[in-house]
Amino acid sequence: MKANSITLALGLACLLITTATLAAEQPRNGGSLTYGVETEPAPLNPQLNGQSKAEVTLRNVWESLLARRTDGSFVPWLATGYEVSPDAKTYRFTLRPDVTFSNGEKLNSSAVAENFRQVQDPKYCAGTSICALSARIASVETPDNDTVVITLKEGYAPFLSFAAKLQILAPASWHSPQLKAGGKDIAGTGPFIIESYEKGQQLTLVRNPHYNWAPATAHHQGPAYLERVTYRFLPESSVRTGALLSGQLDVIEGISGNDASEFKDSADFTYQHALNTGTPYSLFLNVDYGPTQDVKVRQALLQGLDIDPLLKSVYRGERTRAWGITSPVDPLYNNDLEGQYGNNPTVANKLLDEAGWQARDSDGFRTKAGQRLSIEVIQAQATVRDQRDVLLQAIQAQARQRLGVEIKLRYVDSGTYAEVRKSGHFGSIANSNTETDGIDIENHYRPVNAGGAINYSRVNSPEINGWLDQAAATLDINQRRKFYSQLQHYALAQQALAIPLYEPEDQIAAARYVHGAGFRSYKQMPENAYDIWLSDH
Prior knowledge:
Blueprint: H1 2-25, E1 32-37, H2 55-58, E2 66-68, E3 74-76, E4 79-84, E5 90-95, H3 109-118, H4 122-125, H5 129-134, E6 137-144, E7 147-152, H6 159-165, E8 192-198, E9 202-207, E10 228-233, H7 237-245, E11 251-253, E12 269-275, E13 279-285, H8 295-304, H9 307-315, E14 320-321, H10 345-354, E15 359-360, E16 366-368, E17 371-372, E18 374-380, H11 388-403, E19 406-412, H12 414-423, E20 428-433, H13 439-445, H14 462-472, H15 477-494, E21 498-503, E22 505-511, E23 514-515, E24 533-534
Parallel strand pairs: 1-10, 1-11, 18-19, 18-20
Antiparallel strand pairs: 2-3, 4-5, 5-7, 6-7, 8-9, 9-10, 11-22, 12-22, 13-20, 13-21, 14-21, 15-16, 16-17, 23-24
Helix pairs in contact: 8-10, 9-11, 14-15
């Protein structure tokens, strides 16, 4: 009996522990979260904001017609479904009938149609990729209250991705003086509402109590678990790391290679990382200005630099080398160029000699006709993240040592960045992009005056334009991959329009009591706070 009593007691104890554990694992409502993020949204208008890293905050407030699964397929969100015509010219969306904006306005076909019409207006969106893509629209029609039909001027397969991505603003937004800057008056349909914004400091959001239309990719339905979320803008990785370790923050994103070890295998924190889709962080070389007009100079840079040891040194082995025009997790990726160029200073120096840069000045830099071989690399201050400034300095040193090429690094504000891009007076621009379905490729390789919103190499090639046209005209992904593969070989291996450096990725570290923080199912960037909940701590 005594033994049986002990066994029964142990069994009850185990049952109680198991029950308590299960209860602790159940999501709870309530609580406030403080999230340290790398990028402050500028502007706070999701349609005009081109910062991929700002999506972690913006997607709390504004939403799109469709969401995407891990394989890239689309699922309903603000729309219940969609149809695409076989010629990829007509897109029909059926809307949910039960959605309201946070200001009380109803989501209907008129509200959605107005968003698509507004982004066609250059006065509103000039200089953005969203404006360039919307220029393809021929008409926007609303046959009934729940249906929007968009017809393009010609077939364009990536348009569904754009249409599904466009974050919808409430009708009253178009009359607000805050429209372009964004703010509390620019209402969305999301699970959170802007409570306050302190420029340069933080953005505070409160739960939308009426929210009940999360997509199937979310992990629950109904309002968000959290009552309040504060996003603190902390551009320095070490500052974010220190604030999480000291308990000032609950979760952070954007963790440097040096800091990852603080959270990996830690009993107090969780750590996650994932590659993004889109275009790798690359040096795009200008074919219209300065020494990089010469293909031999561009090829010398592509062949002469040795990127792998630089990545290992700067990121402690925590980043992935890039080789092509898009990410390995993108369905359009082609791996043909992996390991096919770079770390060949003998070939590179021969190319520079053939290009006439044979003499050297007193500092060891190559010269021709008394002019130094100097290339100015432009980096927008808003996109200086993930120790990219350190990586560029390492490339600068290697180019001097291996090739005798002077790399000048110039970091500029958003206004200067726009002016420099418009003038074309630069040697290279360093950047990445997370757009999918070939939109990133279109943006980088279409002519500037034909939709290439971020065509930093300023290329206008009949061959490239032909492949882009063919890829855009078919919905067959295998055919599209074939055309983009041809483009990749020409753009990189032959013309050296860019030097791919590394694949952007995102990292999330959180205290153990934070649950549900993770990545979007397709682009693999930090998701909003909708599914996050807190246990006792």
